[in-house]
Design goal:
With 423 residues, this protein is mainly α. It has helices spanning 3-10, 19-41, 44-80, 84-115, 122-125, 128-132, 136-139, 144-149, 158-162, 165-181, 186-211, 213-229, 239-262, 267-284, 287-302, 306-319, 322-338, 345-360, 368-379, 385-422. The longest helix has 38 residues, at 385-422. The protein starts with a helix and ends with a helix.
Length: 423
């Protein structure tokens, strides 16, 4: 294998915290506040400009996300695939992912039993208007079985064109392992050199986007503030929303920090370093689109080893869905309850594990959790019209859940890196 390729990965420069980092932190928060104020002004041209800039930023990060996943996983496995560290990294990633995701659903179950959301009026549950509120493309969605089957690619280029994150991950893993098993020939060195060059190019594009991020945060904040001020996302269905939001808050500020403390890490330090990624996730509602920022923040601000960050984070982006698991679990209970199902403790525990498995199959894209819940509820004949009632508040729920997902990804990467450094 080309020694330069190995050295490029092993010797990635990690920038320590500095005054510049502190300035950036306040710059991001300042952009958040100013954007919120702009949105509340209700000035049409400001709202139009904010929507345009927010859409541009989302598209750019989605554009860079797929090659980031493909190159990061492929190069990491090709370079380290035959080392013992790779197995240790993978095992810890899976272990922490399962523990944090099960914890998120368990918190949701606890709150559901404490708050006990009541049933909606029967005529509303079966209302055609509520069903019509579900987007047409989601109403006609395939079953969960077909969704999972669709992850297996039948064309090497289609997953990249369609942005199918899980399919891209499967291809990247297969190619990376194949490269690791290939003999050290000129052809292999040429392939590795080309992939390394592409990764350097993608890294440069990511840095450019990071430098422009304050403008994006300002636009995202203005966009959300304008929606709230016009009443688009302020309606709710009471106790159900309280369970979802309460579970996310507890997971974000209590459960995940406790995981970090248990591994000897400072949650405040980790959160401060990963703030750009969490904010980006909050507004884009896509952990996949946020991945370039997550990797950059983990490596350059938190000091996570590059081979850990570039292997763990792409995998976590596709399988570590704390917020999604909690949403699927709580929403499924709420829909089934309104459909007349007796929610015994045994039923709740069964659906807790179903929600964890379903969340692992989520693609890390906007409305992914909503789609999965709809598929599961359709499969058991539950009253899916309720999902149309939930839709008006889903925008806010999706934002918070995605931020929690990326925060959980960051915690898993930090804990895995900490474990490896301790030996």
């Amino acid at each position: 294998m080309d020694n330069n390729t190995v050295n490029n990965v092993d010797n990635l420069e990690v920038k320590p915290h500095s005054c510049a980092d502190s300035q950036n932190f306040w710059l991001w928060l300042g952009a958040l506040v100013i954007g919120g104020v702009f949105g509340m002004l209700g000035i049409e041209w400001i709202n139009t400009a904010a929507n345009f800039i927010a859409t541009v930023f989302t598209r750019l990060f989605q554009f860079i996300a797929v090659p980031t996943i493909a190159l990061a996983v492929t190069i990491t496995l090709a370079t380290f695939g035959t080392r013992k560290d790779t197995g240790r990294i993978f095992r810890r990633t899976i272990t922490y992912t399962l523990l944090t995701t099960i914890a998120a659903s368990a918190v949701g179950m606890l709150l559901y039993r404490i708050i006990s959301p009541g049933n909606l009026p029967t005529e509303l549950v079966h209302s055609s208007k509520a069903a019509d509120a579900i987007p047409h493309e989601v109403q006609g969605a395939a079953s969960y079985y077909e969704y999972v089957l669709g992850i297996v690619p039948d064309n090497i280029m289609r997953p990249f064109f369609e942005g199918n994150v899980l399919s891209v991950l499967l291809i990247a893993v297969a190619v990376g392992i194949a490269l690791a098993k290939m003999p050290d020939t000129d052809n292999k060195r040429t392939l590795m050199s080309g992939l390394s060059g592409l990764q350097d190019l993608v890294s440069k594009l990511i840095h450019w986007l990071i430098h422009a991020l304050p403008l994006g945060i300002l636009a995202f904040a203005a966009q959300l503030s304008a929606e709230v001020s016009t009443g688009v996302v302020v309606s709710s269905i009471g106790k159900y929303v309280a369970v979802i939001l309460g579970g996310n808050v507890l997971q974000f500020f209590v459960v995940l920090p406790l995981f970090l403390v248990a591994r000897g890490l400072n949650p405040i330090k980790v959160m401060r370093a990963m703030t750009p990624a969490v904010l980006m996730a909050l507004f884009t509602k896509s952990s996949a689109a946020t991945l370039p920022v997550t990797i950059q923040s983990a490596e350059e601000r938190l000091g996570v080893d590059s081979k850990v960050a570039r292997f763990v984070l792409p995998i976590c982006t596709t399988i570590n869905m704390n917020g999604c698991a909690a949403f699927i679990f709580v929403t499924s209970l709420f829909v089934m309850q309104n459909g007349g199902v007796d929610l015994s403790l045994t039923t709740m525990i069964v659906w807790l594990f179903i929600s964890v498995i379903a969340a692992i199959g989520n693609a890390g894209v906007p409305m992914g959790c909503y789609f999965l819940t709809l598929s599961l509820m359709s499969g058991i004949g539950a009253p899916i019209a309720i999902l149309g009632i939930i839709l008006p508040v889903f925008t806010v729920l999706d934002m918070i859940e995605t931020a929690e997902n990326v925060w959980s990804d960051s915690c898993v990467a930090a804990m895995t890196d900490h474990d490896l450094k301790r030996g």
